[in-house]
User: What shape does this take?
Amino acid sequence: MRLLDELKAEHDLIEKVLGSLRTFVDLRVRGEGDPADAPAFLSFFRLYAAGYHHAREEDVLFPALVKDAELPETKGPVPALIAQHHSMAAMLGE
Assistant: This one.
């Protein structure tokens, strides 16, 4: 269960940074806030969320769900989540 606890904590961190990003965007829309902060948000989502966190899910959690929970590998939640990860990575790449 340690992996699940760690992944949940990572999700919580990602949600908090996402909330900060929303605040940053609101400030920028009003002409406030420092535009120099934007690259740090992009780096966090590219490196931590899309890189480190998604890799842990795809390399460890999802194979365990297929093997131990007997979820199908080619349909259902596992490939749907992988597709979401790839979509997010492509968006961040733009």
Residues 81 and 87 are 10 Å apart (CA to CA). The chain has three helices and no strands. The mean pLDDT is 94.
